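During the second half of the funding period, the structural biology subgroup turned its attention to how the target accommodates small molecules. The most pressing case was iron/sulfur cluster, which had performed well in the primary screen but for which no bound structure existed. We therefore specified the complex as follows and requested a full 3D prediction, including the ligand pose.
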Amino acid sequence: MDMQKKLYLETFGCQMNVSDSEKIVGLMQGIGYVETKDSAQADLILLNTCSIRAKAEQKVYGHLGKFKSLKESRPGLIIGVGGCVAQQEGEKLLKRAPFVNLVFGTHNLHQLQDMVRGAEEGRRSSATDFIDDEARFDLFLPHGREGSVSRFVTVMQGCDNFCAYCIVPHVRGREISRSAAKIVDEVRQLTASGVTEVTLLGQNVNSYAAKNPGEPDFADLLRLVAEIDGVKRLRFTTSHPKDMSQRLIDCFAEIPKLAPHIHLPAQSGSDRVLKAMNRGYTAGQYLAKVSALKKACPEIQFTGDMIVGFPGETEADFQATLDLMQEVTYADLFSFIYSARPGTAAADLPDATDPAEKQARLERLQALQKKVTLERNQSLVGTVQEVLVEGPSSSGECLFGRTGGNRATLLDGDEALAGELVKVKVVEGLQTLLKAEPL
Ligand code: SF4
């Protein structure tokens, strides 16, 4: 009989949550839990929630309802909620969902082991205090899923930008950067355990250490991390276009390990809408950064985020967004219809656009992007790329990896290649992936 305690974890939202979930798995392994993909088998169910979209709280309560009957049939089951909705709701969540054992906010992962142990003894708890200094980062280390070749390393957290639509500064707190020495230490530890690709992570990495005099800026931090022997490939996300310096752009020409890919969210192509969003740049300024990046690194691939139907967006504004997309030619784009988040500056703006019109605009935008993505993938056929092999593909029939430009790629080869950079020739460009042959 299998006596190991099982954890079922669901993650919603951005890469910061994905990264936090890796740490949660590591923390729970530390107190005897192994991960399961089957919630019916779990002794501990954790939801790592996101509040970026409308009605996020209701959706979390709805989702939790699915686990209520499980709890009724197995009273010892522990249910916990973390992430941005937990941060907003706190104690309220324990009251509204009496079958939930614990609620942990975005700054409280370090308390999670104790909270789960307490729940095992029948105690319910909530922890949502912000920790507004660098000590926060030390509390999270060094935990993560075993065995992966690619890992996130948090370099800063929080945000001071207050884009008019965004809840992040309210649920993740103000911007705080971690010391370069500690980041380098963590990367060294990861490479010693077999990790070969690191992604430096933060809400806006471009303003890394802006408030820490004496620390290197983000461009110099990239150089420090690239010097570590075991690092074969380096990435970063996310970048605010207004803080993208020429020094950082030059890194793409000067640091061979830096992958030729950047996630650079524009959000709109209309100057009027960008101003209303409080983004701090015009479409022209955004495009100037794009062309400087293309000049520094001609093979660079762009991904981004776009919001459709921001309050007051006209057809002309929307057309400007399509125009900007045509000029950038994103490899991929995450696009959403604007949804008001209570407490943000845009929440009370008058919004006369018909929801059906917003939906139609989103569909037009996504159709354009689908075409561009396929064209870009097809244009890579015949080229030589470097793929970092992550392991077997989901079907198990071949290997899965990613090009420097972050294109998902299938290739033949031995599983022992996991973690290695392999030179391949692209033989097919499909909508969502490339097929390639090792050289
Ligand atoms: S830069 Fe803007 S969109 Fe990004 S996290 Fe900060 S407030 Fe949100």
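Two results from this model are relevant to the next phase. The CA atoms of residues 1 and 41 lie 13 Å apart. The two ends are 47 Å apart (CA to CA).
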